[in-house]
Amino acid sequence: MVSKAIFIIAVGFFFVPARANEVVDEVNQVLDQMKAAIEQAKAQINQGAAAVEGAVSGELVAAYQSLDATVEQAAQKAAAAGIDITACTAALNATATADITQRTDDAVSCVTKEMTDALNSAEQELTAVQQAEKDVQDGQAALKACDKLSAWKKVKCLAEETAKLVKQAKDIKEEMVAAKENLERIAASYQQDIKACEQRTLGAAESDAKTAGERFVACVVAKGVGL
Length: 227
Description:
Blueprint: H1 2-65, H2 68-81, H3 86-145, H4 151-222
Helix pairs in contact: 1-3, 1-4, 2-4, 3-4
């Protein structure tokens, strides 16, 4: 009977804590992977914003460059007819500069808002990870507190706290699976949102350029240049 009791105590002292450490290692690995995924998502969010802003800048300039042929044709005809259309060209250039500046600001504003929202969502997932880490640490502290108890009570305490830790680990793993899926949804939604920013800006820029081109043509025609 005594040997059986010694065996139970030995199991409680060595096997149970070993299982607890194994569970903690597993959970920490899951949490580390989740933290890495969050950091990667945040980097991609920032890179996506920079890429869209860069693309928008080129698209805005291209929208007005589409008027180059019209401007060149007007300049040649005006020169041949001895007509000065400098005011028309200056007005077009001023409009292009103002429009490009405004549309760039609009795009940056739109992208920045979407980026901020996405980063905030990612930070919420990180907060959940940090809370999970704290829960695991609390579980380890509860296990450590068992050391202060006498042999039988210590075995019982270790078994109870390890059982709690195992359940907690299962819950955390499930939470992290859900968190990772949510992070993927955040990233996918963000890409769509910033693409929408780009498309809205480009659509507005094309409309701006069309209107500016029509005004330019009206200006040179009013000066006597036929287009």
